[in-house]
Design a protein that fits this description.
By secondary structure, the chain is mainly α. The chain has one domain: Hypothetical protein af1432. The chain has 19 helices and 2 strands. The chain has a two-stranded antiparallel ribbon with strand order 1-2. Strand 1 and strand 2 form a beta hairpin. Helix 4 crosses helix 5, helix 7 runs antiparallel to helix 8 and helix 12 crosses helix 16. The longest helix is centred in the C-terminal third of the chain and has 22 residues.
């Protein structure tokens, strides 16, 4: 079976049903899918800081180990962090065996090389600089969530202990340039905060749907899908980085404009071009000042016209055509799975049908027809 298959996509998507901090009052839903997406974005920021300081990063390792930690967390469900870290340290062998067996059950016939690397990851001490970046990103994303819920939970027993534990874990990673910058610089942290705001922005906002996925969670699904597709295609080097992080950041301008649904863009003459120009102006004036100067040209390539095929002389190639197919496939899953859960509407049914037609035409590169057929066979 290829690395990109319907079973692993549903495993990722199903994490949108895993609520975080569900023993606390929450002003908004906080899901595992969104947390993992925020974590992946923060890991990019931390990795870029390391590179800027002259410390090379293995980006393939960061991408794949972030995905492996996502799978591990999805399989072990919504354990409290203290419980999760204790059982994975004190009972690592049996827990890893369970995680791998559950992965095999949920993703039968997975790509053997991918599965072997996942098994190695579970047993590995995770002592690389890249793993340190991922761990730090995890705790920074957790602290962002905690700051969001803190005011609503001030009276809860143990809340200040939780704050101290999170801050202690972040303190263990102060050797990373990016952690020091994020802790000390409000401007640098503002970029992380801006990305987090996409956790508030629902997909299909005017349509009843379960689970109510967000723009940020959708972005990780697109990025992970593209990474698995690149594994199957034998893509290596800079294109893997470009494809993944373009997928992760492709919807970031929506935090400034909100989403305008495709039927409106396509029906109102000239609207798409006006919106594109306005988005560019807002990104340049609002987001770019939050990034280091040396990152900005690369980031422009990711967020401006993300679905175009390109081979930039500085930053290398990107497969925008298949990235668009992954974007459509993620949208198809959002509509299809909600309908099968029993929450539907005419808008959702028509949307699912229209996206399927587009994928049949434009999704051949990722094997979209087979993915959709296999998704329909999964018992959910």
């Amino acid at each position: 079976m290829p690395a990109l298959n319907a079973d692993i996509l549903y495993l990722f998507f199903n994490s949108a049903n895993m609520n975080r901090w569900n023993d606390h009052m929450r002003p908004v839903d906080l899901t595992e899918l969104d947390k993992q997406s925020h974590k992946a974005a923060i890991a990019w920021v931390l990795g870029k800081f390391e590179e800027s300081a002259g410390n090379p990063m293995d980006w393939n390792l960061i991408i794949e180990h972030t995905m492996f930690s996502f799978i591990q967390r999805s399989v072990l469900t919504d354990l409290k962090p203290q419980v999760f870290h204790r059982i994975t340290s004190e009972r690592r062998g049996p827990v890893n065996d369970y995680v791998l067996s559950e992965f095999d059950r949920l993703v039968p016939g997975s790509d053997p090389a991918f599965r072997e690397r996942f098994s190695t990851y579970l047993d590995d001490p995770k002592s690389t600089p890249e793993d340190a970046v991922i761990r730090a990103a995890h705790y920074l994303a957790t602290r962002w969530e905690f700051n969001l819920i803190y005011d609503s939970n001030r009276s809860l027993y143990g809340i200040d202990k939780t704050r101290a534990e999170i801050d202690e874990q972040i303190g263990h990673h102060m050797d990373l340039v990016g952690v020091r910058r994020l802790v000390s610089s409000e401007e640098t942290f503002d970029f992380i905060d801006l990305i987090g705001q996409l956790r508030f922005q629902q997909r299909w906002a005017r349509t009843p749907r379960i689970p109510r996925t967000t723009v940020l969670g959708h972005s990780l699904l697109v990025a992970d899908m593209m990474y698995l597709h690149d594994l199957d295609a034998g893509v290596s080097g800079r294109q893997v980085y470009n494809d993944f992080y373009t997928g992760l950041f492709h919807d970031l301008p929506e935090v400034l404009t909100k989403d305008v649904i495709s039927p409106i863009k396509e029906s109102v003459s000239g609207l798409a071009a006006i919106l594109e120009d306005y988005e560019r102006d807002l990104v340049e004036s609002t987001i770019m000042p939050l990034l280091m100067d040396e990152w900005r040209d690369e980031f422009r390539m990711m967020v401006f016209d993300p679905f175009s095929d390109t081979d930039d002389p500085v930053f290398g190639p990107r497969n925008g055509t298949d990235l668009k197919a992954c974007d459509l496939m993620a949208a198809y899953m959002e509509a299809n799975i909600s309908r099968r859960y029993g929450i539907s509407s005419n808008t959702l049914v028509e949307g699912e049908r229209g996206i399927r037609d587009k994928l049949v035409e434009k999704g051949k590169g990722i094997g979209a027809r087979a993915l959709m057929d296999d998704l329909d066979r999964i018992r959910i």
